[in-house]
Specification:
Nucleotide_cyclase; 2 domains; 46% helix; Alpha-Beta Plaits; ATP binding; 8-stranded mixed sheet; adenylate cyclase; rod-shaped; alpha+beta; binds adenosine-5'-triphosphate; single chain; 327 residues; ATP-binding
Length: 327
């Protein structure tokens, strides 16, 4: 603005001088050339300023778009990670420094572990031309596992964490306050498979085992991290499944003690031989709790007072089978 005023003033001064008789014709030409040069310089300056402003605007817009893209990517990565790992573990990895190769592990004093298998799925799985070399069988298994996953998004099961599914075996865990939720979940799995059988005209049978005890939780692998739990309590839970009976939920005496106190009907199976454990008395969970008002917190006869609250106490977001389901 100031520059424009200055130029105008200069123009007027020159015009006055040009008009005066003191100036010769040559001087007048020189002055006109100077004036024209000045005007051209002014126009060029104006254009340059406008170009700079435009460029600045485009860069700012690009920076905003890139920032938004980065934010979307970060949110997407968080979602992906939350599908693979429990939320608190995913947070740990997101907040830890890059190239952190340290093994992530946690000692959990008391966890409820469940294994649920469909033993006769292997009979159903056949690779034939008619079923797209077995793909149709896998499609049905995927639907069953996705239904099991979907159940976990219900409010009452939010403290249950899916650990993994291996073939036709589904593994989940919960904190010590949620043994009853795990029992309810196991009962729902049975109902769900019955519904699947009705709709698909199949005769799948489910066999479930539940145990409680201390575990070590950790993440194995860097490029394809897998969250898992290990320990004798996990082995016994797996044995409760593998030594179980189809359509039954086999539980250890510790689980039985907790569930009975909460009004769940159970029956004693008697002593069975468990590899690595010898003879174990086990029980079957027969149905839902008969207690009308069942408090959320389960009194745990095994937990000592200074027992650490495991990470399973934290509510987990739904862990769905396929990544795309959550996005
Ligand atoms: N984190 C886990 N995920 C899946 N399965 C597990 C896990 N930990 C233990 N198991 C299963 O628990 C079962 C009992 O384990 P254990 O170590 O007592 O026996 P094993 O001799 O290694 O197993 P097996 O007799 O099946 O060969 C095994 O079948 C094992 O696959």
């Amino acid at each position: 603005m100031e520059l424009t005023t200055l130029i105008l003033k200069l123009f007027i001064t020159i015009a006055v001088l040009v008009g005066s008789s003191e100036f010769t014709l040559t001087q007048q030409y020189v002055n006109i050339i100077i004036l024209v040069g000045f005007v051209i310089a002014l126009i060029l300056h104006g254009q340059q300023t406008e170009a700079t402003y435009r460029l600045d605007f485009v860069w700012k817009q690009q920076a905003t778009e890139e920032k938004e893209d980065m934010e979307h990517l970060e949110a997407y990565n968080r979602k992906l990670l939350a599908n693979i790992l429990p939320v608190h573990v995913a947070e740990h990895f997101l907040n830890s420094p890059k190239n952190n190769d340290e093994l992530y592990h946690e000692q959990c004093d008391f966890v409820c572990i469940m294994f649920a298998s469909i033993p006769n799925f292997s009979e159903f799985y056949v690779e034939l031309e008619g079923n797209n070399e077995g793909v149709e069988c896998l499609r049905l298994l995927n639907e069953i596992i996705a239904d099991f996953d979907e159940l976990l998004s219900e409010e009452q099961f939010k403290y249950i964490e899916k650990i993994k599914s291996t073939g036709a075996t589904y593994m989940a865990a919960s904190g010590y306050r949620h043994v009853t939720a795990m029992a309810d979940y196991a009962l729902r799995l049975k109902e769900l498979l019955e519904e699947v059988n009705e709709h698909s005209f199949n005769h799948f049978r489910i066999r479930i085992g539940i145990n409680v005890g201390p575990v070590v939780a950790g993440v194995i692998g860097a490029r394809k991290p897998q969250y898992d739990i290990w320990g004798n309590a996990v082995n016994v839970a797996s044995r409760m499944d593998s030594t179980g009976i189809c359509d039954k939920i086999q539980i250890t005496s510790e689980v039985n003690q907790i569930l009975q106190a909460k009004g769940y009907p159970t029956t004693c199976r008697g002593a069975i031989e468990v590899k690595g454990k010898g003879s174990m008395e086990t029980f079957f969970l027969e149905g839902p709790s008969k207690s009308p008002t069942r408090p959320n917190i389960t009194v745990n006869p095994l937990a000592n007072s200074d027992s650490k609250i495991s990470q399973f106490e934290k509510p987990m977001t739904t862990v769905l089978g396929t990544i795309s389901e959550k996005n």
